[in-house]
Structure formats: C-alpha cells, structure tokens
Amino acid sequence: MNRIFVVSLILLVFFVISFLTNILGPIIPDIIQSFELSLGLAGFLPFAFFLAYGVMSIPSGILVERYQEKRVMMAAFVISSIGAFQFAMMPTFVVAMLSLFMIGVGMAMLQVAINPLLREAGGKENFAFNSVLGQLCFGAASFLSPQVYSYLVVSLSQQQEESSWLASLQSVVPQDMAWVSLYWVFAVVSLLMVIIISLFNLPKVEQSEEDQVGQLAIYRQLFSNRTVLMYFFAIACYVGTEQGVANWMSQYLSSYHGIDPQLEGADVISYFWGLLTVGCLLGLLLLKVLDSKVVLMTFTGLSMLTLLIALFGDLDTALIAFPLVGFFLSVMWSVIFSLALNSLSTHHGAVSGILCTGIVGGALVPLIIGNLAEIVGLQWAMVTLLLPLSYIFWVAYSAQPLIRNRTIWNKNVTPDTSIVNS
Predict the structure, then answer these.
(1) In the Cβ-directed half-sphere of 162, how many Cα atoms lie within 13 Å?
(2) pLDDT at 69
(3) pLDDT computed for residue 288 by the predictor
C-alpha cells in the first residue's frame, strides 16, 4: 500500500511541475505590457527558465546518486519557492529572469529524480503504464494553469474587497499587475510540496553500473556518438517547437487578431495542452498498429500543416488550428525518446540524462523567435518552427532502431544486430 501512496505522490509532482512550467505562454503578453518589453527581450523569459535544464540535468543526476531522491526533491521545491517569492515581492524584469531560472533549476532537479523513482516505486513491469499516467497528470495541469491564470487576473482586477484569500492576495499584488498573483500561488504550492514530500518514506532506487551518473568518461563517449547526438538535437527541436508555439501563440493572436490574452488567449493555450494530452492517448493506440517511425513522420507532417494554417488563416481558423498543433506534437517526446534508447545497446541511464539536457531547446527556440520577430514580424518568425519540425521528420525517416516497437502485426520483436552504432 505504501508504494501506491508513493506513486500517487510522484503523479502529484508531475502535476505541479507542469503547472509551474507551462504558465509562461499565457503571461508573456502581460509581462510585455507591464514591463514595456520588445518581443526580443520577452524571448529571454523562456530562455532563462529552460536554460536551467541545460545547466542542471546532469548535475541533478549526480546529486540524486549522492543524496537520494527525497532530499533532492525537497531541495528542488525549496529553490522553486524562493524563486517565486523573490519575484512576487520584487516584480521587475531582471528579478523575473532570475526567478524563472531558479524555478527552472528546481523543475530540472525534479525531472531527473522522479522518473527512476517512479520505476522503482511502481515496479519495473508497470513503468510504461505509470509513465502514461504521469503524462496525463502533466497534461491536466497544463490545461488547468491557464484557467487559474484567467480566474486570478479577472477576480483581482475587479477590485472586490472580500474577507477571503482573494482579498489577502489582492493586498500584496500591484494594482496594475494582477498576473503577479500567480507567483504567490507558485511559492505557496512549492512550500506545500516540501511538507508533503517530507511525510513520505521513499524507496531507495538501485542503479545498475551503466545507469550510474557522474562517470565523465561515459558522457564523453556518448557525446561523440552520432546516434546520441542525432536524438539529442531531436529532443531539443521538439521542446523548442512545443515552447515556441505555447509561449508565442497568445501574443500572436493578440497582435494579429486582437483577442484578449487574459481570456481567449489563455483558453487557446489551455486547449493546446489539453489536445496534446488527448493526442498522447491516440498515439499509444497507433503505436500498437503502426511502426513508431511511421507514427512520428505522420504526426510531424500534420503538425507542420496545422501550424501553417494557424499562422495564415483567419481568426476562427487559428483558434482551431493552434490547439491542433498541440495534438500532433503529442507523440513526439515519447517516440523520439524510445527510438533513441532502442537505437543503443548500452548506457541507457546516461543517454536519458543527455536527452533530458536537450530540453534546453525550450530556451533557445522561443528566444530566436522573439528576436526574429523584431526584424520580420512574429508571423514569419513563427514560420521558422518548420525548421526544427523538418529535422524531426528527417530523424523519423533516418532512424534505425535495434529494437522496433511491438505491434499487433509484429509481435516477435528482436534486436537487429546488423545495425552498428557509430
């Protein structure tokens, strides 16, 4: 029974990670307006957050090995809470950058810690199923966070003095910056997670020699492996595309179609993440009947098509097409990750750490879009997302996994020993 509670805790952590991570898209238009930023400067906000993944993913693995998952998870939420409190009390652009980096550091530490813990607590034989549950919790929080943002901004903007927690929140938030209230929520939620985690006895994760982190020689070897690099850049392209769309779609709809980013813009982002979650479920079914390469190529091609429709269609078309981009992006993370691990015969733990470092793509692509928007406009800047998507399509076409995914047509899956990793 204790393991059920531990798995439930980990699913809660997935939920909180997503809630804190995917709120940037809805609030970017507010940050631009409040601090009078150019689109180029606004691009530094997701850069600060996702840069933390590039900096902290491998060091977090070393910390987990030395101090175990529970301490690292508690430390991660303490760091996240400090970062959120810092900005809530001093809402300036410079502090926002530092705050987002600190929250990103905490989220990177959590991502590294919880996956092996979920595998241990839930049982290795149930890991795939529990991972899907984790992604569903992640998606549910991504759908919910923009709705919470809209509720807080609208409620606090009405200036209603009530004897409630909203009145207390209103007293500490700048009058013309109601969106800052989210950071008070982030800080409190992070502190609550520290308390909750402290109440649990977490199982010790036993690592095989090849999965132990901190072995620099292994990382040097893997970083010179063309297969590892191919999938590292594929993960970077996926996360960059996902965050490029999520972070800029509300600003795009506001700039080109005049919608309110606090209401309709937040709704579109909610639907984007909601359909991304639904797409995961469809992807699981398709992977039972189709080769994962075919699934990845198909979804990548459709994501490119719907992105173009969203960017060059009218308002009604864009309101449908942008969420559909999320639907077709849905399978990319899991399929790229599985193709990568199935294309290598050893050091899967270290490879996973390197692939997670590719989340730094979420820092670079939105920043590039913001700076390009200063030159060619946001519409054409977002068209450049076709480049990382084209790379993912090429990876799907070029992939030569040692082990292919099991389907109802191909139940006897064996390694292809004719393929040699270089």
Answers:
(1) 9
(2) 84
(3) 75
Cβ-based neighbour number of residue 292 at 10 Å: 23
Q: Is the dihedral of CA 303, 308, 313, 319 positive or negative?
A: positive
How many Å apart are CA 369 and CA 349, to the nearest integer?
A: 33
Of how many residues is the chain composed?
Answer: 422
Q: Tell me, letter by letter, the H, E, C secondary structure of 280-328.
A: HHHHHHHCCCCCHHHHHHHHHHHHHHHHHHHHHCCHHHHHHHHHHHHHH
Q: Which domains does the chain have, with CATH numbers?
A: 2-201+211-398 (1.20.1250.20)
pLDDT (0 to 100) of residue 126: 64
Tell which wins on pLDDT, 48 or 57.
Answer: 48
In the predicted model, what is the mean pLDDT of residues 41-53? 88
What sign does the dihedral 125-131-137-143 (CA atoms) show? negative
Q: Is 375 exposed, middle or buried (0-12, 13-18, 19+ CB in 10 A)?
A: exposed
What CA–CA distance (Å, rounded) separates 157 from 363? 31
Q: Is 308 exposed, middle or buried (0-12, 13-18, 19+ CB in 10 A)?
A: middle
Contact 222, 92 (CB under 8 A): no
32-41, 315-324, 372-381, range with the lowest pLDDT: 32-41
- Indicate the residue type of 343: S
Rounded distance, CA 17 to CA 190, Å? 10
Indicate the pTM of the whole model: 0.80
Contacts of residue 229, defined as CB under 8 A and 6 or more positions apart, other chains included, come to: 223
Query: Who's near 67: CB < 8 A, 6+ residues apart?
Result: none
| Separation of alpha carbons 336 and 358, rounded Å | 12
Q: What band does 422 get if pLDDT is binned at 50, 70 and 90?
A: very low
Alpha carbon distance 162, 166 (integer Å): 7
Q: How far apart are CA 324 and CA 378, in angstroms?
A: 20
- Please report the beta strands in 177-294, taking only residues with DSSP state E, as ranges in sequence order: none
Question: Which of the residue ranges 109-118, 155-164, 333-342 would you say has the lowest mean pLDDT?
Answer: 155-164
What's the pLDDT score for residue 248?
93
Indicate left, alpha or beta for 258 from its phi (over 0: left) and psi (-120 to 50: alpha): left
**What would the two tokens of residue 371 be?**
């700076």
CA-to-CA separations, 233 to 9, 149, 243, 274, 324, in angstroms, rounded:
32, 32, 15, 26, 24
Listing DSSP states for 129-170 in one string gives HHHHHHHHHHHHHHHHHHHHHHHHHHHHHTT---SSHHHHHH
